[in-house]
Amino acid sequence: MPPRSDAPPKEVIEELVRQAQQGESEAFAGLYEAYYAKIYRYVMFKTGDSVEAEDLAEEVFLRMLESINSFKWQGYPFTSWLFRIAHNLVVDYYRKKGRQKNTSLDDAMRVIGSDNVYMDKQIDMKISIKEVNNAMGGLTQLQQEVLTLRFAGGLSVAETAEAMGKKENAVKALQHAAIKKLRTLLGPQMDQVLAQRGGV
């Protein structure tokens, strides 16, 4: 998995997308490098299986390659379009399996890595994997999706809204409700985590 976790500036991404739409292979490689780590973390968090996550992440970029010409700049970022592909592939993955697997947060924590402040602080605060897993299980699927996109995927509220096909206010409301529920379930440790993150 490429180490890069921060995407290049918007102008660079726009140029890479333009070049990729013209069939330039180096531009595809640039987009892959810029986004693979985030896509992999997101898929890993959703599936809890590193092998499946690698396969699905690769499939995301194959789909990107196949359909890049259909992408149009319409006021939302390229990231949202890419995460929508990832989301759809995860949905298909579970549809084919015929069941919803619980995420293995033990594996997900290792994959998410040290660049994710939210999860790092959970470890630092010694919130057990079981506690977090149980707490996430107490959220609705939409709330889980918001938190996964925001914290495992590292998306902004606007990017999350676009990826989910929701309004920003709806994403904020879902995130607020999810965090409120996690506070109830996890207690003071959650407040410390959020304080470290700046209150999200």
The parts where pLDDT drops under 50 for at least 5 residues are 1-5, 100-129
**Coarse shape:** globular
Task: Quote the beta fraction.
Answer: under 5%
Judged by helices, strands and strand pairing, the structural class is mainly alpha
The total number of structural domains is 1
Rg over alpha carbons: 17 Å
| Quantity of strands, as a count | 0
Tally of helical runs: 11
Summarize the biggest pleated sheet.
none
Question: Can you characterise this structure?
Answer:
The chain is 74% helix and 0% strand. Helix 8 (141-152) crosses helix 10 (168-186). The protein is an all-alpha fold and 200 residues long. The protein has helices spanning 10-21, 25-47, 50-67, 78-97, 105-112, 117-124, 129-137, 141-152, 157-164, 168-186, 188-197. It has one domain. The relative contact order is 0.12. The longest helix has 23 residues, at 25-47. The model is unreliable at 1-5 and 100-129 (pLDDT under 50).
Task: Quickly describe the structure.
The protein is mainly alpha-helical and 200 residues long. It contains eleven helices and no strands.
Write the layout of secondary structure elements.
Layout lengths: L9 H12 L3 H23 L2 H18 L10 H20 L7 H8 L4 H8 L4 H9 L3 H12 L4 H8 L3 H19 L1 H10 L3
Helix pairs in contact: 1-2, 2-3, 2-4, 3-4, 4-9, 6-11, 7-10, 8-10, 9-10, 10-11
